[in-house]
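Agenda item 2: cobalt (II) ion complex prediction
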Amino acid sequence: MRRLFTLRRGRRLPTYQREEEVAGLRAAGRFNAQVLDFVRPYVREGAATGRLDRLAQEYIRDHGHVPACLGYNGYPCTLCTSVNDVVCHGIPGNQRLRSGDIVNIDCSTYVNGWYGDSSETFLIGDVSPEARRITQAAFDAMWIGIRSLTPYCSVIDIGRAIHRLGLQRGFGIVENFQGHGIGRMFHQDPGIPHVPLRKSKRDVLYPGVCFTIEPMLNAGGAETAPVDDDGWTVRTADGSLSAQFEHQILMTEAGPEVLTLTKSGPREGHVF
Ligand code: MF3
Ligand code: CO
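Presented output:
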């Protein structure tokens, strides 16, 4: 009943259901998570973000794969490293991480024809209670979004769940940047807003749809400033801290399968 209804109402989205397609996606997600596990020990006080980027690029190439962000719309690096008030797309460079910083490391890879994409926010040294709270909220927002998923649910269910959490904790949820479908292409339909948008109602997550959930939460307002002069860096409009986590998910008949679980990173329920 539900299936007929949703298939009739739903917009056509790319789906990957054949065994070799699912295997390709799983391998890409697994490798992408492996890169985050590889850089994790280097993400600490004193490390320059550009060094993390070089290490990640070398690791990806050594394994015979391709950094997906490098050259994407002219983006100059392998990772995005977004420190403190940077919401997303921070460009790695000479900046050294300092005690008290929070930094999101976003990695995307191209693995035998399939894209992988995930990110984590790291706490550097002794951080303020607010930095810890915003990081926790972004992590919990991602997981509440994942737990809202059932086969044939609508994309709007994700935004509803995340929006409710943001309101409860008094944090802004960025609306200008969204999650996305992913697979043979880096970014494809459906867009995954982290707030409930009416137009996502028609996007049905039937088995075989692969996408990211990557909420950005701000300690202050949801607004972002105009892009920096470097053409990429996005900051909060009010200078407040921003945190983000991202997983790549494949919807299956049995429910959501998280493709980018790390071995050494925070698991669902983690307390920062
Ligand atoms: N990894 C980002 C995402 O989650 C994409 C960054 S695009 C780049 O979709 F060009 F800035 F790398
Ligand atoms: Co993404």
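Discussion summary: Residues 21 and 114 are 9 Å apart (CA to CA).
Owner for follow-up: CH.
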